[in-house]
Every structure is written in C-alpha cells, then in structure tokens.
Amino acid sequence: MGIEGPFWRAIAVFRVASLVYAAVLLIQAGGYGHPVAGWLVIGVMAAWTVFTAAAYPSARAAWPLLLADLAVTAGCLLSTPLVQDPADASDVAMPITATWVAGPALAWGVARGRRAGAVSAAILSAGDLWLRGSQGINFVSIPVNGAVLLFLAGVVVGHVAQLAREAEELMRRAVQLEAAGRERERLARGIHDSVLQVLALVQRRGAEIGGEAAELGRLAGEQESALRALVQAPAPAGDPAEDGLPDQGGPRRRSLRAPDQGGPRRRPLRVPDEEGPADRVDLRDLLRPYGSARVTVSAPATALFLPAGAAHEVGAAVGAALDNVSRHCAEGTRAWVLAEQDGETVTVSVRDEGPGIPDGRLEQAAADGRMGVARSIRGRIADLGGTVAITSSRTGTEIELSVPADAGRRRRV
C-alpha cells in the first residue's frame, strides 16, 4: 500500500463523517418529502462506504473500482429528486448526498493524480448543477461554491498524493544508493587488503628482478591502477581519503606480523544487524597474533568484548595500520598496539617510531585514489559508529581507533 495508505484511511474517515452528516440532515428535515427513499439512499451510501474502505487499499485503486465509485456516487446524487420535493430543494442547500459526493474526486486524485481528480470533480459538479437546474432553481441563483470546492479538493489532494509518491520513490532510491555505496566500501576494503597489495608487491619485485619479471610487474601495475579506479568511490567532503603513502622505492618491507601467525585472516566481513551475547568476541584474541619482535601488543587483564563482526573489523583495521608501518617505515621500525576500554568505548592505538607522515601526503594519496587508511581503517571504524584520530610527527605516527562497546548492533540506515 505504501505512501497511499494514509490517504486511503483519510478518505475512508471523510466518507464516514460525510455519511453521518447526510443522515443528520435527513433527520432534521423530517425525511424530506419521501423518507423511505431517503433512508434507502443513505443505506446505499453506507454500504458503499464500507466497501470502498476495504477495496481501495487492497485493489490498489484499479480503473474498474474508480469508475464504479464515480457511478455509484453520481447515482446517489441524481436520486435527490426521488427524495426531495421541489419545496425541499428550494429550502435545502444540499442534495441527499451532502458532502459525501466528494469521495470519488478525492479517490481519483490519490490514485491517478490531480488531472484525474479534476475530471472526477468536474463530472460530479456538472451533475450537481444539472440537478439543481432541473429542480426549478434559477440558474443565476445556483450556488457554485460546492462545485468550486469539489474541484479544488480533487486537484489539491491529487497534487499532494503525487508529490508524496515522488518523495517515496526518491527515498527508496536514496536507500538503495546508500546500501550500494556501503557494499562498495566493504568490497573495496577487502580488495585493498588482498588483491591490491599483492599486485603492488608483484610490480615492485618485478622491477627489481628485471627481464621478463619486469614486464610481469608492469602488467601487475596496470591491473592495480585499473582495479583501484574500479573500486574507488568519491570521498565525503571534508574527509580526505588517505592511505596510501606513495611508494618510496626499494624492496618491499617485510610485514610486522609474526612469521607463522599472520594475524586474523583477511576477508571482508559483514557486521550483523543484531547479535546475541553468544556472538561476542574478546578483542584481545584478535590482536595478540600481531605481536612479534618488532610489534608489542598490550591489553588489559580483563576481556575486551565486542560483537563478533565488529571485533573482526577492528582487528582488520589494526592489521591495515601495521601494514602501512611495514610499507613506509625503515626495516626494523618498532610499533606498539595498545588496547583498553573506558566505560562504553573500546580504544585501540597503533603507534610507531617511524619518520611520520609529511604534510599534504594524505591529501595527495586521496587524489591518487589510494585507499588503505580511508577504507581499510577509517571506513571500517566509521561503519561501526566509531572514530579514527591520526597524530603524526617526525618521531612517529599514532593511529587511535575508538568504537562503542556495542558497535555493530545498530547499523546506520
């Protein structure tokens, strides 16, 4: 039923209220000249009100229902001479249907737009004016306020309903685009963590070895550039997508992870919308494998529980930060990983004693489409509702990751 549901309910309420009003007018007039006929018409109006209240939402306002609604309402309107005598018509400003006659104009406007509402209102208004003329009322003295209001009601309600449908469609498309963008970000992080890094390594090693390996490295470099362009999405204004410090030349640095452990397995993970207590993971278990002779991992004695998906995303972000240390710092550079919990926030900081990040390097990385920090670190933490703070100087760089302890339970919409 969508956005039209509230409109159909409002029209049903209007029909019921108008039906009660018509019955009250009939009672006040003593049944007009023909009480039996009057109450028979009121009964038809009541039955049709009940039918349309149920039929319009379920039938999605198909043309047969709209035409039947117009025909029944016009028939009740034109039955007025059977209920009112000429004297009644002179004394009473309204036909037997009273304001109930506006129902089809409103329904046509909601179902088919303002033009259809105007057409329906014009047909009913013509019937009303003809009826008054046939009852001997001077055409010049015929009140046209009802016809004008009926026409305006059909046009205005139809216009508002059309605007509501357009707004609903825009909202639906915006939700789809946001979902597609978030999925694109998730896939881009996984690609950066695996394929792009392997291609960059092949390119560098091929250039060092030379010969046929150099051609292989060149092809790998072309594929890396093409893949980066494919998965790159525009970064939000004011949030420079960085990583990606440009390669400095020379052999690729060995990873700072322990030789045989390799840290948590890298793969894109979806954070569940809702997770029960059994799905909580101790973040310390995911950080310890990063420890080695050059990486010191420090964590509290008590567990740092996070929802499973969120914990793996934080662990992967830490791994991406350590990868940057191995890529852009000198061989043997020390790094420290410190995890702690302060109230409802879990914080993990990755600090190194490298040369720091030169001014403007992150902005240049964003322009070049490099996305390690932007997607593998900032993107992951942002999806969890957390924050990333990067502090860099000539004595080293510190990346601080902060996420709520219930991160991942309430996804952004």
Describe the structure.
- The chain crosses the membrane at residues 12-30, 36-56, 63-80, 92-111, 139-164.
- This is Histidine kinase.
- Residues 316-406 form the Histidine kinase/HSP90-like ATPase domain.
- Residues 1-169 form the DUF5931 domain.
- This protein is 57% helix and 10% strand.
- The chain is of the alpha+beta class and 413 residues long.
- The protein has two domains: 2-172; 236-404, Heat Shock Protein 90 (2-Layer Sandwich), CATH 3.30.565.
- Mean pLDDT is 77; it is low at 138-142 and 233-276.
Keywords:
single chain, 413 residues, alpha+beta, 2 domains, five-stranded mixed sheet, two-stranded antiparallel ribbon, 13 helices, 7 strands, kinase, transmembrane helix, DUF5931, HATPase_C_sf, transferase
- Helices and strands, in order, run as HHHHHHHHHEHEEHEEHHEE
**Integer count of domains:** 2
Q: Biggest β-sheet: count, sense, barrel?
A: 5 strands, mixed
**Strand order in space, largest sheet:** 2-4-5-7-6
Q: Which percent bin holds the helix content?
A: 55-70%
**Beta-strand residue percentage:** 5-15%
User: Count the strands?
Assistant: 7
End-to-end distance? 22 Å
Question: Low-confidence spans: pLDDT under 50, at least 5 residues?
Answer: 138-142, 233-276
Number of helices: 13
InterPro entries: DUF5931 (IPR045975), HATPase_C_sf (IPR036890), HATPase_dom (IPR003594), Sensor_HK_TwoCompSys (IPR050482)
GO molecular function: kinase activity
Domain Histidine kinase/HSP90-like ATPase: 316-406
Protein name: Histidine kinase
